[in-house]
UniProtKB/TrEMBL annotation:
<comment type="similarity">
    <text>Belongs to the arginine deiminase family.</text>
</comment>
<dbReference type="Pfam" id="PF02274">
    <property type="entry name" value="ADI"/>
</dbReference>
<keyword id="KW-0378">Hydrolase</keyword>
<feature type="active site" description="Amidino-cysteine intermediate">
    <location>
        <position position="395"/>
    </location>
</feature>
<dbReference type="InterPro" id="IPR003876">
    <property type="entry name" value="Arg_deiminase"/>
</dbReference>
<keyword id="KW-0056">Arginine metabolism</keyword>
<comment type="pathway">
    <text>Amino-acid degradation; L-arginine degradation via ADI pathway; carbamoyl phosphate from L-arginine: step 1/2.</text>
</comment>
<dbReference type="GO" id="GO:0016990">
    <property type="term" value="F:arginine deiminase activity"/>
</dbReference>
<keyword id="KW-0963">Cytoplasm</keyword>
<protein>
    <recommendedName>
        <fullName>Arginine deiminase</fullName>
        <ecNumber>3.5.3.6</ecNumber>
    </recommendedName>
</protein>
Length: 405
């Protein structure tokens, strides 16, 4: 057992010193994006893939240079598929959809996938497969094969795997596999599920939010302080999802308070972490247009059930729940146009490596300058290609181990 394996995994805040993180180095799945499918696959443009990989490598290198252990999703996936037949079955059955492929093709595809080695299978499960790439004989009795175009997907690619924040998150010593709201992302959770179930690194790790009763995405979940969780409700996480998550974390004694934060249902603010992230134990960077209008419902665990208050101003409700006098907002103080541009480019989506130390996209010059003026150390990364999926450093990282606060 390595020393890392001997150290307890878990996360109880947004800012405790980051020790281990899960990233996904983008690969062949980004090469599937075309002007015809990019909207449906939730990208705003077509990234230059080699450059996106360079940018991602630099992000991973920066984290390593700061002492963070970087786990890569593809490596974990291939290792889990190598070790476990059950993992292979799980990955294959999530990727083969008989409703879309028909039974003939579904059976042929599943039989083929069972013969593929673990590395190749990991690639197929992430990058997908087109009808042209089907290695099995003529269409025969499959009407579906006869009627599809060669470039259509037999297995849909998962370009948004890059945003590891959304398909799982840790709360305390448990991991939650999320229920992703949109069809383009739903299968991502089958891969995080199989990794956490079958990779030896995660042996014995227990689950949070197991019921999956309604959509909850990790980008909407902020661990404001030990025991206090904020959950954004908007385009992705639903009110039912937030309610179910609250009940689940109360039952498992992972939190005593959940703040449910309504956010506008539009692409620019698809998750709470697109408008607000923590940069210190008592400080957030927030999109100025909403900083003082955001509200929250406060759900508390009580001896005889739960209580719900609100909605009240978010900053006050958060400070009260966290037991601090005030939650500092780093006042980006920007004019409307600059603030809107930098919010769109994920200026508010920072990843904290420790209290007061964050990773941010370099392009958000004004927001970064304001953060530094407030005493925050900003480690800049390039993101011109990575950002075309509309996600920043927080979206691209799932902390697995932070020092407890
Ligand atoms: N937490 C996040 O905000 N993640 C970014 C997700 C971007 C992705 N293209 C999506 O639309 O889901």
């Amino acid at each position: 057992m390595t020393s890392e394996q001997g150290t307890a995994l878990g996360v109880n805040s947004e800012v405790g010193t980051l020790r281990t993180v899960l990233l996904h180095r983008p690969g062949g799945e980004l090469k599937r994006l075309t002007p015809r499918n990019n909207d449906q696959l939730l990208f705003d443009g077509l990234p230059w893939v080699d450059r996106a990989q360079d940018e991602h490598d630099a992000f991973a290198a920066l984290l390593r240079s700061r002492g963070v252990e970087v786990l890569l999703l593809s490596d974990l996936l291939a290792e889990a598929l190598t070790i476990s037949g059950a993992a292979r079955m799980q990955g294959i059955s999530a990727a083969v959809d008989p409703r879309r492929l028909g039974h003939v093709l579904a059976q042929e595809l599943a039989s083929y996938l069972r013969t593929v080695g673990p590395d190749a299978l990991a690639t197929l499960l992430t990058a997908g497969m087109t009808f042209d790439e089907l290695p099995i004989g003529p269409a025969g009795a499959s009407l579906v094969r006869r009627m599809h175009h060669g470039g259509d997907f037999v297995i849909e690619p998962l370009p948004n795997l890059l945003f590891t924040r959304d398909s799982s998150f840790w709360i305390g010593d448990r991991v939650a596999i999320t229920a992703l709201a949109l069809p383009a992302r739903a299968r991502e959770a089958s891969l995080t599920d199989l990794i956490y179930a079958h990779h030896p690194r995660f042996l014995g790790v227990r689950r949070a939010y197991e019921s999956h009763t309604a959509p909850v995405e990790g980008g909407d979940v902020l661990l404001l302080s030990p025991g206090v969780v904020a959950v954004g409700v908007g385009e992705r996480t639903t009110p039912a999802g937030a309610e179910a998550l609250a009940r689940s974390v109360f039952e498992d004694e992972l939190a005593h308070t959940v703040l449910v934060v309504p956010i506008e249902q539009r692409r620019a603010s698809m998750h709470l972490d697109t408008v607000c992230t923590m940069v210190d134990v008592d400080a957030v960077v927030m999109y100025p247009a909403i900083a003082h209008t955001l509200t929250a419902f406060t759900i508390r665990r009580e001896d005889d059930g739960v209580s719900i208050r609100g909605a009240e101003p978010f900053l006050e409700a958060a400070a009260a729940a966290m037991g601090i006098g005030k939650l500092r907002v780093i006042d980006t103080g920007l004019d409307h146009v600059t603030a809107e541009r930098e919010q769109w480019d994920d200026g508010n989506n920072t990843l904290a490596l420790a209290p007061g130390v964050v990773v941010a996209y370099e392009r958000n010059v004004e927001t970064n300058a304001r953060l530094e003026a407030s005493g925050i150390e900003v480690l800049r990364i390039a993101g011109s290609e990575l950002g075309s999926g509309r996600g920043g450093p927080r979206c691209m990282s799932c902390p697995v181990r932070r020092d407890p606060l």
